[in-house]
Amino acid sequence: MANTHTTRSRRTPLDWAGLTALAMLVLVTGGLVATFGPLLAIACDTCQDGVRTPHFENALILVAWPGVPLTTLLTVAGIFLPRGGAKAGGIGLGVLTVLMVTLLVLGR
Prior knowledge:
Elements: H1 13-42, H2 57-80, H3 86-107
Helix pairs in contact: 1-2, 1-3, 2-3
């Protein structure tokens, strides 16, 4: 009986280095979004104390605290899964970008 399974090549050290660099980029981006996203969302030039009270404060907190770290963690995990890789990293970076825009919109 013939072997019908397709063999998938193993990842080379260069592949692992690229995936590790992508994971580091995702971690840094997630950290920046989690740190500066809420700060930029509530910043106000015309307010006396420089801070605006957003209308959707609970939604802003929900996106910033569990949303961004969870997205970052799942993206890094997806990068190192056998069927993950750069595609998972690209999708995760896109979702982090959408979350940053969401934070800015919720703060306005």
